[in-house]
Design a protein that fits this description.
By secondary structure, this protein is mostly beta strands. It folds into two domains: 174 residues, Porin (Beta Barrel); 140 residues, Beta Barrel (Porin). The chain contains two helices and 16 strands. An eight-stranded antiparallel beta barrel has the order 1-2-3-4-5-6-7-8. Strands 9-10-11-12-13-14-15-16 form an eight-stranded antiparallel barrel. Strand 10 and strand 11 form a beta hairpin.
């Protein structure tokens, strides 16, 4: 289900580059109050105890709405970005309650003076009250840390009620998991329907612009090299193994095909130190060194780059993995040559690791 989050996110990345346009910058504050109600999704047997979970939540937004033409000209939308704080109650003693803080990006499409259509993506951290405990809460296999990463996507419609008030109705998908940092970690997904009231201190109307296509010449190919590292992870009861650490290096070529997209191709090699369980059917402590080739895409969002990759192992790989993997990442431009970021590596629907990486662009 993590894959669904990123697939949905692909619908609006072009809108995010609007924040880096230098001319005619106009940004106004927006405040919002939202009520959510929904139900959990049972995506695997290990979270079957969540089938009757009916979560409810309330949240507030503090955000900024872009209104300038430079923002609109990227893909005919108005970008809203900000911070959300929510209180969540799973209405179930096994899964407990939570407090979630996240940052979000929301492209808003103007439909006349009164209507709008919007997408939204959030990334954040939540504190949840009832993680797995072998003695007191051993039926919660969805999450095992109090502090857990959080992902969210939504889409819906809005209606302008008055000069300063707009209402929204959205369908929402939510996900928590820790990327195999601790076990058990089956993850928890839930769908919700939400109703929001937005307050614009200035004016809630979105300006009307005539779109003029602006052609820009793409830059040439670039060559990247970097190092990746993952610290120790928890014992995985399905894989019968524990990773002590992972250290690797990679190179890739990035070829821009538009002002916001680049295709990538690369090779990588990594060393993982595993501790195997004697009850495992195979020797899951070997092999320690793996190599792979990757193909992917990057969304060039100013100083932020959002990447997606498919990979194929060239050498032997642990028996608990598949021969292919997919990876999703974010990195930030520190200078003209240096980048830093993180990636989530997944085999089918099972998260393998979250790596930290430092990258140099030649």
């Amino acid at each position: 289900m993590i894959r669904l989050f990123f697939i949905l996110l692909l619908f609006f990345p072009c809108c995010l580059t609007a924040q880096d346009q230098p001319d005619s910058f106009i940004s106004k504050k927006v405040f919002a109050f939202t009520i959510h109600r929904g139900s959990a999704l049972v995506h695997k047997e290990s979270v079957s105890s969540a089938k009757d979970v009916k979560p409810v939540s309330v949240g507030i937004d503090y955000s900024f709405q872009r209104l300038d033409y430079s923002s609109f000209s990227i893909c005919r939308t108005y970008l809203r970005r900000g911070f959300n704080l929510s209180y969540l109650d799973f209405k179930n003693p096994v899964f407990g309650k939570g407090i979630i803080g996240s940052i979000f990006l929301q492209p808003v499409y103007r439909i006349g003076k009164s209507f709008q259509f919007q997408f939204r993506g959030d990334v954040g951290i939540g504190y949840f009250s009832k993680p797995y405990d072998e003695i007191t809460n051993n039926t919660n296999l969805a999450y095992s840390n109090h502090v857990t990463p959080y992902l969210h996507v939504s889409s819906g419609i809005g209606f302008r009620v008055s000069k300063k008030i707009t209402t929204e109705i959205n369908g929402n998908f939510n996900h928590i998991s820790n990327g195999h940092a601790n076990q058990p970690n089956a993850g928890l997904n839930w769908m919700m329907l939400s109703a929001s009231i937005l307050y614009y201190p200035y004016n809630s109307i979105l300006p009307k612009y005539k779109y003029v296509r602006n052609k820009r010449k793409s830059e040439g190919a670039s060559f990247d090299a970097g190092i990746i590292f993952t610290p120790g992870q928890a014992y995985h009861d399905l894989w019968k193994a524990k990773r002590r650490f992972m250290l690797g290096m990679f190179t890739q070529v990035s070829l821009p095909v538009s002002r916001i997209n680049a295709f990538t191709s690369g090779v990588e090699i990594s060393y993982s130190s595993y501790q195997n369980d004697e009850t495992a059917a195979h020797n899951n402590s070997q092999p320690a060194t793996t190599s792979a080739i990757t193909l992917g895409n990057e969304f060039l969002l100013g100083k932020v780059i959002f990447s997606q990759q498919m990979g194929k192992y060239l050498t032997r790989y642990p028996s608990f993995h598949t021969g292919y993997f997919h990876r999703w990442g974010l990195r930030y431009k520190l200078s003209s040559h240096w980048f830093a970021g993180f990636n989530l590596k997944v085999h089918k629907e099972v998260a393998d690791l979250i790596d930290l990486r430092l990258q140099y662009r030649f």
